[in-house]
Amino acid sequence: MITQASGISVGSATNADAANPNSVYMQSHNAATPQNMIINENVYDAQGNQLQSPFTGATRVDYTVQQGTKAPQTIMTYP
Questions:
Q1: Structural domain total, the chain
Q2: By residue range, what is the domain housing residue 48?
Q3: Strands 60-65 and 39-44
Q4: Torsion region of 48: left, alpha or beta (phi above 0 gives left; psi -120 to 50 gives alpha)
Q5: One domain for residues 58 and 74
Q6: 3-state class (DSSP) for residue 77
Q7: One digit per residue, pLDDT tens: the chain, 79 residues?
Q8: d(C-alpha 41, C-alpha 64), whole Å
Q9: Element holding 26 (H helix, E strand)
Q10: 43 and 25, same structural domain?
């Protein structure tokens, strides 16, 4: 957490905090993972080909999220 790392105690955000791109509130807000995304499951075979269900021959799966037109972000890969 930004406030823990800096040692600065922060109270409730104000309108000024929300309007200031350098405030701890906005830094935290911009760094947080958005909660309104769909998690995509991508399953691959040993050659790296993406599989469709049923996932026969699957050797790897990764989970990604994507916001708008931004590139997908991998949040987990197994194994």
A1: 2
A2: 39-78
A3: antiparallel
A4: left
A5: yes
A6: strand
A7: 556 666 766 678 889 988 999 988 888 888 887 777 788 999 999 999 999 999 999 999 999 998 888 899 999 999 9
A8: 7
A9: helix 24-31
A10: no
Q: Are residues 27 and 45 in the same domain?
A: no
Please give the angle made by the CA atoms of 11, 29 and 35, to the nearest 5 degrees. Answer: 120
Tokens of 3: 């406030």
CA end-to-end span of the chain: 28
Same domain flag for 46 and 63:
yes
Asked whether residue 44 falls in the same domain as residue 65, the answer is yes
46 and 24 together in one domain = no
Both tokens of 70, joined, read 């931004």
* R_g of the chain, CA atoms, integer Å: 19
